[in-house]
Write a structure and sequence with these properties.
Elements: E1 7-9, E2 23-25, E3 32-34, E4 37-38, E5 41-42, E6 48-50, H1 52-63, H2 68-75, H3 79-99, E7 103-105
Parallel strand pairs: 6-7
Antiparallel strand pairs: 1-2, 3-7, 4-5
Helix pairs in contact: 1-2, 1-3, 2-3
Length: about 110
Amino acid sequence: MPRGPRWRWCWRKRGPGRPPKPRILAFMPPSVAFLPHVEGELIEGEPVVIMPDELEALRLVYLEGLTQREASERMGISRGTLWRLLDSGRRKLVRALVERRPIVLSSER
């Protein structure tokens, strides 16, 4: 598990409605891009952007082996919200792999 300060991260919602609840992250990922290539040639395409809360949910459940309930408690969100983050993150990763698109880890929405 990463050591250091915990981050409170929240994307900005513009417009009417309830403001989003901040998520507690164990680490803030730097902005990184993973670019696919075949035989040394980079493949161009529209990037798939993985948000920090999606990455944290994937890390807690699949890397650390926590249950969805334990992971949601660590992030300070409901289990349903965690499930949606996992579903969104999985779909984005699979889309990037199948369609050979770049994967970008970003801290901005």
